[in-house]
Amino acid sequence: MKKRIWGTAAIGCSVLLGSFVGAGSYTFHYGEGFSYFRKDPASCVNCHIMQPHYDTWLKSSHHAVANCIDCHLPHEFPHDFIAKAENGWNHSWAFTFDDFPEPIRMTARNRRTLEDNCKACHGPLTDQMLADHHRPDERGAVSCLHCHSNVGHTAPPR
Amino acid sequence: NIFTRKQEARVPFQRLVEVDESTTDPAPWGVNWPHQYDSYLRTVDHERTRYGGSDAIPKQKLDADPWLRTMWAGYAFSLDYREARGHAHMLWDQDHTERVLQRPQPGACLHCHSSIIEAYRHVGDGDVMAGFRQVNAMTWNEARNLTNDAGHPLVAHPMSCVDCHDPETMRLRVTRPGFIEGIRKLKAAEGIDDYDVHRDATRHELRTFVCAQCHVEYYFAGTDTQLTYPWDKGIRAEEIEAYYDEIDFSDWRHGITAAPMLKAQHPEFELWSQGVHAKAGVACADCHMPYRRVGAMKVSDHHVRSPLLDVAASCQTCHRVPEEELLERAHVTQDRTQGLIDRAAAALTDMIDAIRRAKEAGASDEQLAEALRLHRRAQWRLDFVYSENSRGFHAAQESARLLAESIDYSRQGVAAAIVAGASPEGTPQVVEASPVEGVTPSEEAPSPRE
Amino acid sequence: NIFTRKQEARVPFQRLVEVDESTTDPAPWGVNWPHQYDSYLRTVDHERTRYGGSDAIPKQKLDADPWLRTMWAGYAFSLDYREARGHAHMLWDQDHTERVLQRPQPGACLHCHSSIIEAYRHVGDGDVMAGFRQVNAMTWNEARNLTNDAGHPLVAHPMSCVDCHDPETMRLRVTRPGFIEGIRKLKAAEGIDDYDVHRDATRHELRTFVCAQCHVEYYFAGTDTQLTYPWDKGIRAEEIEAYYDEIDFSDWRHGITAAPMLKAQHPEFELWSQGVHAKAGVACADCHMPYRRVGAMKVSDHHVRSPLLDVAASCQTCHRVPEEELLERAHVTQDRTQGLIDRAAAALTDMIDAIRRAKEAGASDEQLAEALRLHRRAQWRLDFVYSENSRGFHAAQESARLLAESIDYSRQGVAAAIVAGASPEGTPQVVEASPVEGVTPSEEAPSPRE
Ligand SMILES: [Ca+2]
Ligand SMILES: [Ca+2]
Predict the structure, then answer these.
(1) Which residues, at least 6 apart from B57, have a Cβ–Cβ distance to it below 8 Å?
(2) CB A142 to CB B204 under 8 A?
(3) What's the complex ipTM?
(4) Rounded to whole angstroms, how far apart are CA atoms C204 and B61?
């Protein structure tokens, strides 16, 4: 199920992704990369189910600087991403719907991807927080979302 | 994974100066970590909030709330009890409180008012725990004036970097023996055996634990005044009370009713743990040490103080709500708590006075047993909330619950005293207290400071 | 609130059937808006939660909490008081409550238990307000059996679509005269003159106001039992009490102490308004009518019920926390409230019994004046929280505050009664109440239902 969604998502976004390949580093985003992204997220909203997330993203602090995939899809391409895409291709839109719990909640894996993307873009700023002197295991982990869960989407008052 | 590769590359800081376990002076650390040091130094600053913050000359709470003298009649806290201020003041303020100047106090006091681990290590010949026990048993003066072999004072600085950071890695850590033992007992009570905070605590938990080293309820056990955190049965007010009852402990006998009393001190960790934020995993440092952007870096604000002095950094990251509105929400919670504190204080004062009248009418201890039992219960709950420093913010409903119970016990105490013969009339009045005891019962107490 | 604003754009529907102000039957509406109708019909369902939810045969609260019979001694509520259930039941349940079967009740009762506006319009010859006043003054039977000129019953359906929606536009609106007048007085008290809810209320406010038409404290004013919301001074419990004191109102005299009492009924709107969610702008409908996706459309769930029966839809849109954890947070709040309710109930029962003993000992009304004053205060606050149906969830700290005050007054009442001569001993006991009054004092009450 998940894979399927991601796949479709992937397709929805493949146009943009072409331009994305190999450009994982944050300098790219901070640079002229912006112009590309403004166009994009429509692809996600091909699914009405993504509408609220789109609308809340539009109002978020990041709408001008980061789009859906910057945060939600792995930055390292192309390999496992293409895999996801092919995977999704085999499934028709119809199947993508209606047997997932709502409100939609991110999977643990996608949440990790998300946080890695925060760190990727905000590397220098957060070096000290993330310095590897902290416990390398889970116990040493720091979650951006613990404090910043509303950067991508103006969540309800909170 | 790109991210981890990036991370290995990270050089969080260069060490210009070497610091180690013996570096209790924050200054050298400041060379390596100037931003944190600068903000740490700002803890000398003072600015008030409605219920907290700090002043140049710490507010004398005994004058602001005269009923405190009645609640603590016969105890050192009725001599001098002030508004807390920044960490940089902690040692000086202990030196100068009338509780120390006028009453005998043990070396145990310094556990939370100075960068003292090195002193423990010295006294214990390398064994911090052993040193901790010995210093606890010293007089305050002996402890305060400890020197190393070179004759340099060992208790010279307020809590500083080394108390929360590993000098090697800068990793967060706890150092206070009182807490290390306390948290183990607490975890055991929760069914977790052999808890080792160094091994088992997560980084996020440590963002609370470093504070819980000191911002907790405590007592001095035995005649050698061993500093102890009473968490054997848990940290809810009732659980701590049950523990004290079981070991039949009391801090002092009340100056007016002679009931065996308990003194609650700054149970911030305990009350926070019962609140909504704790349930949501929000740590002390999240609010009291918010990150700030300094140049191209995010730095934890080491100017630890009232978050209401900078709601933007302390709250707004999580609560996307206008500043005034957040401040107003906090004030609503605090104002309600204050209202209940006043109510509980009136009830407590009425009870104490009713017991006094009953005694004057010749009531026997036996007739007053019930009233005295209620006095202990009522005072513990009021003191627990009053001496906690967030005016209920850390746990709004729990604070109100404790005050409700306090009121219940005080008012039952009034009735019990009347039944025991107290004249119904008589307006409560602050009565001259009997001689004030030190924290340690005077008989076995070290001689007062000269 | 983004979740609500979003919807405005799309409320797609075609009108297959015409509906107008006279369409009190929800069925025709259901043809146009099947999703909402289907969920509305499900309000007949029943499922319990720890403190709420509903049962097939509504739980008799008087048996679950026997002290209620003591608190309400002498009043109709001591005959029959059950757990609320879904909206579809509201008319049937009023028909069958012993409070109606055994005691005289006015037509005013139907204001919140049926789709009655059309009846008001008929009785008032087109003037709803006039009709409202006349129906209030009728006996319950006259009102219940009203018919139109064609002889068709006018009070035939529980509250339905037309009571919250404009049949032309489907826009939200309020229809209840009691609320329309009440909210104007409330706004005036807040300094807003000439408030017209139809003109001035925002859509988001209406997501609360439609519920506040009925989920509020009320009383029947005067001998013509005019339904009135006591908000002239505000909606906090003290403000409502102050209003009742000023107009010297009481619902009944207590069956044991003869104190002039106040009865609090379901003050959900009032208590909610003092809570954290209200401060954060969270409306009743946000939690009790969460959106559900039906294909491409989002539909407000008209199966209004306990949100704890579907935490995912009701809470997780805002709280991205696992269901169990959210449920646990809500239960912590409710359990604390329940604990304080039990405490306040014990105190109230003690007071009532002490007053009884004082009377038996021959205390004069004058000697008991203070105790009786305290009885009224204590009962009002306990009743206010107990009769509110969220077990403190809507306003955790405020509920605890009111219960703390109730305990304070009850325990003071015990002391006052002892001073007035009550024998100290004597275990509280439920005493046979004096004859039970109807909601309207019997002397000027309409004749009982045959
Ligand atoms: Ca203590
Ligand atoms: Ca009422």
Answers:
(1) none
(2) yes
(3) 0.92
(4) 45
